[in-house]
Amino acid sequence: MDPVAGLAIYFIVWWITLFAVLPWGVRSQHETGDVTPGTEVGAPVRPGLLKKMATTTVIAAVVWLFIAWIQIYQPIPYDSIPFMPDFGEAY
User: Fold this and answer.
1) Cys staple from 35: which of 29, 48, 60, 82, with CB 3.0 to 4.6 Å?
2) Left (φ > 0), alpha (ψ -120 to 50) or beta: where does 67 sit?
3) Is 28:41 a contact under the CB 8 Å cutoff?
């Protein structure tokens, strides 16, 4: 895998994973019963963004390693995927 392509894939996987991890453990002001005047009741009390970024980095690294393993060792040949174009044809 080309290093630039690897970084691009990791970047995309990291952002997708971040959006999946963001709602984990969020408690709103309404749930805690301590609503600050002038704020939205659904606003999080302690979002814990650094912890979520660290979790995202670890999960994205595992997913990226799996994608890199598939791309490098090709346990599933690209030609066997039905929706992929036939790479054996000459264009």
Assistant:
1) 29
2) alpha
3) yes
pLDDT value of position 34: 86
**Whole-number Å distance between alpha carbons of 74 and 90:** 21
Q: Whose structure tokens read 């309404």?
A: 30
Burial of 32-50, coded b for 16+ CB within 10 Å and e otherwise, reads eeeeeeeeeeeebeeeeee
The proportion of the chain whose per-residue pLDDT surpasses 70, expressed as a percent, equals 91
Q: How many CB atoms lie under 10 A from the CB of residue 69?
A: 12
Q: What pLDDT does residue 83 have?
A: 74
Distance CA 79, CA 84 (A): 7
- H/E segment holding residue 46: none
Residue with tokens 């999946």: 20
